[in-house]
Structure formats: structure tokens, C-alpha cells
Amino acid sequence: MTAPALPAPDATRLDALDRQALHRALIDRVEAAWRLCLEVHPALPRPAVWLDLRGKSAGQAHFGRGGLRFNPVLLDENRLAFLVEVVPHEMAHWLVHHLEDGERARPHGREWQTVMRRLFGLPPRTTHRFDTGRSSPAPYRYRCGCREHAFTARRHALARRGSRYRCRHCAQTLVYYAPPAFEKTV
Ligand SMILES: [Zn+2]
Ligand SMILES: [Zn+2]
């Protein structure tokens, strides 16, 4: 594994930024990531940037709209992870999509992984350790035989103390399997 291609942000400085300066820092990071991509694909269009994503997704490359979307609540709570991982993650999707035959590549397939490793010098992760306390009202994940269920902190506490919950669809008892701090990017 090579070193990350983009410079490491100053975490202390980053934590001190107000909302507007933080959004500026994100946009600057997107710009830096885009410039890096130009080295391998000079015709890559510059993506627009929106901070309009809600819920559990940290970021999303939106090819129809022509840019990258980010989640402002998760950004605020996970500033360093956003600049270090989420921006390159979405920019790698942006780059792969614009390569020849890129529209046919699988979302986190070989091409995307190669961009993450070789261009950005990062492990090609699709999940990040985030604090989603404020952004998701029901962040605890439970499983049954047929699907995933989301529990609130209150319901999770009751289950921990012995309350049993069953799935309405398959009737199996729900089993806790994932803490709230494990989030996906798309
Ligand atoms: Zn079920
Ligand atoms: Zn992704």
C-alpha cells in the first residue's frame, strides 16, 4: 500500500471550522481530488458539489445531475473521515464512470478499487466508522431470517435488557448484529 496521495488534513484546525468554512474545505478537497484524477484522465469533467444528502449515506456520485452529493450532518460529525476517505471514494466513482466502458463497471468493482489503491493510495473501503447518533433516529441494526431492522436507542436498550422482538414477516426473533457507528458510502 502506498501513502495517501492527497495531503493529510490538520484535524485540530478542521474541528474548529464553522459550518461555512467546513463546506469550503470539503469543496477544496473535491477540487484537489479532481485535479489528481486529471493526471490519468485529462478530459474528466469537474463535478458539481451538493451538500443535500440525508440519512445514512455519506456521499453519492450522481451522474444524472453531474456531480457529487454529500451528507452535511455526517460531514459535520466526521470531518476528517470525509476529507480523507469519502471524497476520494466518490471521486473514484466519478472517474470510473467517465472512463471508456465505465458505465458498465460494477459500483465497487475492480476499476473502482484500482483507482482507490493506485491513484488515491487508499484501501478500497465501502464502509466507514461514523458516529451517526444525530443523523439516524434508529441506528441499531437487527436481523431476522428475511431482512434488516432498525432500532432506536430506546428499543435497543429494552432488547438488551431481555425484551424479545419478532419479525412480522418471518416470525423469527430479531438479533442484534451491528452498532450504529458503521456506515456505508454509495
Ligand atoms: Zn423477517
Ligand atoms: Zn461507493
Automatic annotation (TrEMBL):
Pfam families membership: SprT-like
Domain of life of the source: Bacteria
Biological processes annotated in GO: response to stress
Stretches assigned to the SprT-like domain: 28-177
Name under which the protein is recorded: Metallopeptidase
Organism the protein comes from: Halomonas aestuarii
